[in-house]
Inverse folding.
């Protein structure tokens, strides 16, 4: 509990900055919707006829003219990328920052087992992702209510839930890598998030690359699929859960036997 | 039971030497010195004892507990003062002391307040704004506030001004007479000579001498610098003789009265007799090692 509190205290500034940035960016987009809705017929035609650009972002299957269609694309980009970056950074820095900032010597010469440190830090990462997602979800719901649109709660929940899983998966993978690092892994964390995002775009464009959807977490967070099926694709989510478990297991395996410099 | 006991403790790093076949025993209640130049393996030894790094081979017990399996119990009864005191940025002194006490699951506010008062450390300052010496004080309070049975200090006085050093050592002596074992690692010989009862000398990962400080000091040579026209011969008591224009410098290891008598008969204009630096003491022990195996 001491560790968890300590971690949250260390991270609250960055949590607030990321949450507020993503949350308000999304709210602004929602507020722009009524304005755009009037001219939406033309926009919808334009967006659905841009060839591979359209397929890349799943806009061939989404109706930009409805709030939820508009929201799925907007959500996919802001919460998808922003949330992924935040989660990856959280995960990659959790363990490595102690050695990078040379506080590891302080922390690890206290009577706390390595297992408890790994667990405490992991709990802090997951808790912070929860806090961000809950705040953003509430902000989204209120902003939709504010523009007096009907709230598509079921779809909204599914979209947000899928991005929550994306963040948990990326954070867990990065957490596992973090155990191996002695210096800042920010580049690695952001790199993983970006590569995963692009793998999904590649999978959208090329039918031969469909299998990539089972590798990248963005595969199960595809707005178009979620809205068409009104459910999450368990076939794609399951590999994601397995990757997360592997990441976490790797962190425990490595950090309990690591020499601290 | 010994406070620290290592048997052939070895740590190899991938690229560099760590420590080799280290056999060390520190009795409970001792004020033990651990001397060696930078990079000799002092910190590696300490970090291994504290479980920050795993030994490559050999074994070690701290307070009767195995360092591989009983890390948490060892750490809960040990206070550690690192050579470089670095804390979480953005935290206040009070937060760090509270965090350290919480991790020990103890309420140390009384002890902390006493120690801060003696070391003149303000609780409300931010650690990132503190000077090196003041950060060191924070680390000292962290090491002492939970009243550990064993204190492991890695170059504790760096950054402290002389007055603070004196206060610090008087705290250590109080703790030591109350029964706390003190393991003091340092490259400053006088610190060890003035405070410790026994000491070990480490060089290039190996312990080359371990004895009472008195015995080690007696074996120590003095560095003598003489100005004037002096005729001396290297011998058993005079070694490392260096001559330049009108000065002569040598290591003297013998009866100091004989030296003075000999010098007074010659035409000298200036004389200084000083403690040799650590490197010279190592040379002394290295020469001993060549002649005979030192007592370990």
């Amino acid at each position: 509990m001491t560790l968890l509190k300590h971690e949250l205290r260390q991270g609250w500034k960055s949590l607030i900055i990321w949450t507020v940035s993503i949350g308000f960016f999304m709210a602004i987009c929602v507020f722009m919707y009524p304005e755009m809705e009037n001219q939406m017929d033309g926009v919808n035609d334009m967006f659905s006829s841009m060839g591979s650009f359209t397929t890349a972002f799943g806009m061939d299957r989404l109706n930009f003219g409805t709030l939820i269609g508009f929201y799925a694309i907007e959500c996919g980009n802001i919460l998808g990328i922003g949330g992924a970056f935040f989660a990856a950074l959280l995960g990659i820095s959790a363990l490595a920052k102690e050695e990078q900032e040379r506080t590891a010597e302080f922390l690890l010469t206290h009577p706390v087992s390595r297992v408890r440190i790994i667990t405490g830090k992991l709990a802090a990462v997951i808790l912070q992702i929860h806090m961000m997602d809950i705040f953003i979800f509430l902000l989204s719901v209120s902003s939709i209510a504010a523009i007096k649109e009907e709230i598509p709660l079921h779809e909204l929940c599914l979209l947000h839930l899928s991005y929550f899983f994306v963040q948990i998966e990326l954070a867990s993978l990065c957490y596992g890598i973090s155990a191996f690092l002695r210096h800042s892994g920010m580049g690695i964390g952001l790199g993983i998030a970006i590569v995963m995002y692009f793998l999904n775009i590649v999978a959208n464009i090329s039918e031969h690359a469909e299998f990539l959807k089972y590798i990248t977490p963005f595969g199960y967070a595809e707005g178009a699929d979620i809205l068409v099926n009104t459910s999450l694709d368990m076939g794609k989510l399951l590999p994601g859960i397995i990757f997360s478990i592997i990441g976490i297991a790797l962190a425990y395996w490595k950090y309990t036997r690591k020499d601290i410099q | 039971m010994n406070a620290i006991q290592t048997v052939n403790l070895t740590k190899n790093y991938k690229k560099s030497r760590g420590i080799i076949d280290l056999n060390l025993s520190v009795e409970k209640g001792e004020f033990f010195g651990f001397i060696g130049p930078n990079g000799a393996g002092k910190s590696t030894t300490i970090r291994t004892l504290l479980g920050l790094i795993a030994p490559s081979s050999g074994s070690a017990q701290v307070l009767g507990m195995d360092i591989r399996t009983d890390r948490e119990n060892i750490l809960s009864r040990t206070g550690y003062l690192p050579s470089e005191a670095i804390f979480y940025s953005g935290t206040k002194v009070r937060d760090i002391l509270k965090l350290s006490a919480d991790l020990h699951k103890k309420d140390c506010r009384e002890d902390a307040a006493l120690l801060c008062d003696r070391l003149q450390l303000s609780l409300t300052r931010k650690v990132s704004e503190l000077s090196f010496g003041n950060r060191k004080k924070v680390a000292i309070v962290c090491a002492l506030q939970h009243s550990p049975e064993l204190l492991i200090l890695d170059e504790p006085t760096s950054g402290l001004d002389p007055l603070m050093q004196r206060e610090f050592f008087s705290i250590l002596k109080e703790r030591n007479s109350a029964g706390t074992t003190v393991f003091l690692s340092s490259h400053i010989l006088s610190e060890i000579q003035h405070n410790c009862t026994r000491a070990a000398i480490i060089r290039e990962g190996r312990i080359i001498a371990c004895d009472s400080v008195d015995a080690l000091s007696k074996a120590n040579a003095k560095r003598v610098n003489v100005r004037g026209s002096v005729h001396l011969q290297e011998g058993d008591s005079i070694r490392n003789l260096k001559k330049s224009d009108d000065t002569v410098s040598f290591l003297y290891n013998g009866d100091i009265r004989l030296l003075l008598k000999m010098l007074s008969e010659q035409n000298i204009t200036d004389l200084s007799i000083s403690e040799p630096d650590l490197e010279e003491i190592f040379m002394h022990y290295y020469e001993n090692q060549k002649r005979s195996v030192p007592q370990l």
